[in-house]
Write a structure and sequence with these properties.
Length: 134
């Protein structure tokens, strides 16, 4: 009986959180209709470029500071809470943390693109130039 109750509790907790971890590849990027949110900093976007069609929305600034309320307000103007979307950063470290926060604590339907933009570059992906007036 205890195992059944524990199993139901674990199952129930996963019904509300949806965090998917996917190793990012150029094929995934080129064949997805998902909105991709690039959470890096403007200096990183300028340095490397961005995934074509992605949304640029900084979470951590250059000093590691963040504004959760401001980020969520901006995110909610891009995606609906139940809409599946993906997060990308430089290597996947930041998106790992933020995906878990968004999915497990706030019930967003989020995909963490593991490996980040650097993995895409190693696999031959050609980014588009970041345009700050976009």
């Amino acid at each position: 009986m205890k195992k059944t109750v524990l199993g139901l509790l674990l199952l129930g907790s996963t019904l509300f959180a949806d965090v998917t971890n996917i190793e990012v590849t150029p094929q995934f990027i080129n064949n997805t209709n998902l909105k991709i949110i690039d959470i890096r900093t403007p200096s990183e976007w300028r340095e490397t470029g961005i995934v074509k069609g992605s949304y640029t929305l900084t979470f951590f600034d250059e000093r590691g500071n963040y504004d959760t309320e401001g980020f969520l307000k901006a995110l909610n103007s891009i995606v609906k809470k139940d809409e599946k979307f993906a997060l990308i950063c430089r290597t996947g470290s930041r998106t790992g943390m933020i995906s878990n926060f968004l999915g497990k604590k706030l019930n967003y339907n989020v995909i963490n693109l593991k490996g980040g933009i650097m993995k895409l570059f190693r696999e031959g992906y050609n980014p588009e130039k970041y345009n700050s007036t976009k």
